[in-house]
Amino acid sequence: MMEHLHLKLRFTLYSAFHTTGNRWRWAADKALAMSPDGDYVIPATTLKGALRERAETLLRTWGLDVCTGPTPETMCADANNLCPACQVFGNPRFPSPLRFQDGRFGPDTVAQIRSGVSISRQRRAALPRRLFFVETTSPGPLEAISTSEGYFPDRASALQACALVTLAARWISAVGGGRTRGLGWIEKVEVQATLNDEPVPQEELEALWHKWAGGHHVAED
Ligand SMILES: [Zn+2]
């Protein structure tokens, strides 16, 4: 039987948020990403990328080997020997067992236009500084809810994914673009995890965190 992991992530942001979507909005150079039915979103790829980045940092801090993206050449190539980050988040060769959904802001979320000045990276640009306009959400607190789920061959791999995503969610501090301009700062992320529709016991996650913190790959035990 496959193990079905379901994670619900509730993000609370204390600042405005921006990720550039592919919408066009009058008077904005960069418009917010939006779902097809009209809610502002943190795109799934943005969420997953931010969680992975945080997970990688934590695992490396504890002395575990984690490959370095984003180019496929520098990421794990052996399906039987993937680093913990690739096992959970996948890489260009091996898809993640977890499918992340966009984080949705509530339907009452209001957007606004901010201006900023971009500095051209080309030295000889005729106009090295340019005024631009960005659409962001209104300032926080804001809530966005995302779910991710997947099927795993055994309980151990499902728990590993649950533990790594939950850990990254606890330590994540920002998501999206414009962090240097004070956008996208996260106050907290609450994770509700179920495995085959049963709540995942906190002790099982803590046991994995302790192993990682001691520098042990779970597979080595
Ligand atoms: Zn890897």
Protein model, in words:
The chain has about 220 residues and is of the alpha+beta class. The chain has one domain (about 5-220): Alpha-Beta Plaits. The protein is built from four helices and nine strands. It has helices at about 45-60, 85-90, 155-170, 200-215; strands spanning about 5-15, 40, 100, 105, 110-120, 130-135, 140-150, 185-195, 200. The strands form two sheets. Strands 1, 2, 3, 4, 7, 8 and 9 form a seven-stranded antiparallel sheet that branches. Strands 5-6 form a two-stranded antiparallel sheet. Strand 8 (about 185-195) and strand 9 (about 200) form a beta hairpin. It starts with a strand and ends in an 8-residue tail after the last helix. The relative contact order is 0.27. The structure holds zinc ion. Zinc ion (ZN) binds near residues 82 and 91.
Strand-helix topology:
Layout: E1 3-13, E2 41-42, H1 44-61, H2 84-89, E3 98-100, E4 103-105, E5 111-119, E6 129-137, E7 142-152, H3 155-171, E8 186-195, E9 198-199, H4 202-213
Antiparallel strand pairs: 1-7, 1-8, 2-4, 3-7, 4-7, 5-6, 8-9
The structure holds zinc ion.
What's the CATH architecture name? 2-Layer Sandwich
Tally of separate domains: 1
Name the CATH class.
Answer: Alpha Beta
Using the alpha-carbon principal axes, give the shape: globular
What order do the helices and strands follow? Answer: EEHHEEEEEHEEH
Whole-number average pLDDT? 88
Termini separation: 24 Å
Uncertain spans? none
